[in-house]
Amino acid sequence: MLKRDLSIEFLGVKFENPFLLSSSPVGNCYEMCAKALDTGWGGVVFKTVGFFIANEVSPRFAELEKEGTRFIGFKNMEQIAEHSLEENLEAMRKLKKNYPTKILIASIMGENEKEWEDLAKLVTDAGADMIECNFSCPQMTSHAMGSDVGSNPELVKKYCAAVRRGSKLPFLAKMTPNLGEMITPAHAAMEGGADGIAAINTVKSIVGVELNKLIGLPIVNGKSSVSGYSGKAVKPIALRFIHDLKTNSKTKDIPISGMGGVETWQDALEFILMGSGTIQVTTSVMQYGYRVVEDMISGISHYMEEKNIRTLQELVGIAVSNIVPAEDLDRTYIVYPKIDEDKCIGCGRCHISCYDGGHQALEWDSEERKVSLIKENCVGCHLCSLVCPVQCISKGEIEFKKNCEKKEILL
Ligand SMILES: Cc1cc2nc3c(=O)[nH]c(=O)nc-3n(C[C@H](O)[C@H](O)[C@H](O)COP(=O)(O)O)c2cc1C
């Protein structure tokens, strides 16, 4: 089947497709980035470099699982690059030489204005196409760096201005989600000279506590610490921050490189529909390898073909306007659940959830192992359909509330 062209222009740079390794161990050296680019990634955001060389803990990861599913969320205690700055710059030079059409984004992190300016110069000279400023690592051992900087709009603006002095390349400011709103620091970044926003970095977390040793995970010689959470579990948080940026009058026109929990082409497309021009990925690559990009490329190509969409750009941000404030939602009707008795396996889970966590609207016949709707109790919350293991509950009859006008409803 014909493959669609997934190329996109982002900050004035042409990407063969929007998929990038996000800055992390997945793009830690020349060989790793080269393998990723050979697998089909449109570009890489190289692991954050700085004059500060990280001294890391061991072990440094933990994961959240639920009912046997691993990696629902992933916690890391890593800082920035462990290789020397010169080694990293050499890797960037080699990457740009051997992969001239792929996009190299250098992620940098300084400790003061001079460092930010110098780093911007160095990565520009090394051949980067674009810079990403890491204002967002939540587990730096120095509070002059990372998310402590990213939650201070004045510092964000000052350091962006330093980067602008050091380089003419387009640059992204990578934001922390560890604050109530992202509009203020994102706007400050633009005032300082940034061309776009990358969001999100990891969410501060304690992923679990070991119950015999009474220590948070991962255990580092008897202790643990708060650090960044990523993977599928953070996708809703990332989408919400991106949506907020795209709907605020101060930030709505800022180009966004979106990330946080992208595993599949559908995840990637959701970020695009919510306004991301490029997509970055780490955790799913750490779990499954670089080949996840193949699914992303073919999935989005097929979607575009099916919907007759010619360019990826046409999709960017087109779902933003369908997220509205709570007060603007239609509250005039109830949609009742419809139970497909042929598909029902009689497990009773819908009944239990409806009774214990809902409105006691499903009657349970324990002999026949069947449920039936008690319409007068049902509020149409659809908890039943969410817990059903065989998806036999769908949206059924629509009833309009008293004195509410009947109309077409899009479900
Ligand atoms: C182990 C690990 C190391 C990371 N290191 C960096 C880093 O050096 N610089 C940076 O900007 N983000 C770093 N991140 C954050 C990711 O680039 C990304 O923003 C975050 O993990 C969300 O995307 P994901 O859910 O696809 O992993 C790191 C993430 C992980 C899991």
Q: Count of helices? A: 12
Give the averaged pLDDT, no decimals.
97
Helix content: 25-40%
What strand order characterises the main sheet? Answer: 3-4-7-8-9-10-15-16
Radius of gyration: 24 Å
Q: Which overall shape is indicated by the principal axes computed on the Cα atoms?
A: globular
CATH fold name of the largest domain: TIM Barrel
Described by strand count, sense and barrel closure, the largest sheet is: 8 strands, parallel, barrel
List unreliable stretches of 5+ residues.
none
In percent, how much strand structure appears in the residues?
A: 15-25%
Bound ligands, named by name, code or SMILES: flavin mononucleotide
- What is the CATH-assigned architecture of the largest domain? Alpha-Beta Barrel
- Structural class call reads alpha/beta
Properties at a glance:
20 strands; binds flavin mononucleotide; 4-stranded antiparallel sheet; alpha/beta; Alpha-Beta Plaits; 2 domains; 411 residues; 23% strand; TIM Barrel; 8-stranded parallel beta barrel
Structure write-up:
The protein has 411 residues and is α/β, with parallel strands linked by helices. A hairpin with a 4-residue loop joins β12 and β13 (215-216). The radius of gyration is 24 Å and the shape is globular. It has twelve helices and 20 strands. The mean pLDDT is 97. The chain has helices at residues 30-39, 85-98, 113-125, 147-150, 153-166, 183-192, 235-247, 265-273, 283-288, 292-306, 349-357, 383-387, and strands at residues 8-10, 13-15, 19-21, 43-49, 61-66, 69-76, 103-108, 130-134, 171-174, 196-199, 203-205, 209-210, 215-216, 227-230, 256-259, 276-281, 333-339, 362-365, 370-373, 393-400. α3 (113-125) packs parallel to α5, α5 (153-166) runs parallel beside α6 and α8 crosses α10 (292-306). It folds into two domains: 8-322, Alpha-Beta Barrel (TIM Barrel); 330-400, Alpha-Beta Plaits. The strands form six sheets. An eight-stranded parallel barrel has the order 3-4-7-8-9-10-15-16, surrounded by eight helices. Bound molecules: flavin mononucleotide. Residues 22-25, 47-48, 74, 76, 78, 80, 107, 134, 137, 174, 201-202, 230-231, 234, 259-262, 281-283 line the site of flavin mononucleotide.
